[in-house]
Q: What sequence folds into this?
C-alpha cells in the first residue's frame, strides 16, 4: 500500500549483550540517505543527513521532509556510522505521513 511519508524517525537502541555505551556509540548511524520507490527498483532520494549524533540510548530523532509523492517502498541507507566495522547499526526506524 503506497503512502506519502513526510516524517521519519530514528531511535538509538542498546545492541550489545553487555550494554557497553562505547560499543553502542560506534554502531550508531552518522550519515544516511532516505529513499522512496513506487516499484522497489527505481529509488528517489528524499533526504540526506550527515554528522547526526545520538547522545543517549533510546533517544529518538525526528526528521521532517518535503515529500508530496506516494511511495510503496521506503528505505534508509546508512553510509557511515561512528566507527564500527559495519556489522550492525543501533537504530529503529519509524515512518509517518
A:
Amino acid at each position: 500500500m503506497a503512502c506519502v511519508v513526510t516524517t521519519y524517525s530514528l531511535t538509538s537502541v542498546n545492541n550489545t549483550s553487555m550494554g557497553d555505551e562505547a560499543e553502542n556509540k560506534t554502531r550508531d548511524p552518522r550519515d544516511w540517505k532516505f529513499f522512496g520507490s513506487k516499484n522497489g527498483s527505481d529509488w528517489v532520494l528524499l533526504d540526506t543527513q550527515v554528522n547526526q549524533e545520538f547522545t543517549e540510548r533510546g533517544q529518538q530523532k525526528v526528521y521532517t521532509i518535503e515529500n508530496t509523492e506516494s511511495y510503496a517502498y521506503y528505505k534508509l541507507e546508512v553510509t557511515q556510522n561512528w566507527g564500527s566495522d559495519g556489522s550492525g547499526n543501533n537504530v529503529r526506524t519509524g515512518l509517518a505521513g
Notes: The mean pLDDT is 84. The first strand starts at residue 7 and ends at 12. The two ends are 13 Å apart (CA to CA). The beta strands are 7-12, 29-37, 43-49, 60-64, 73-81, 91-96.
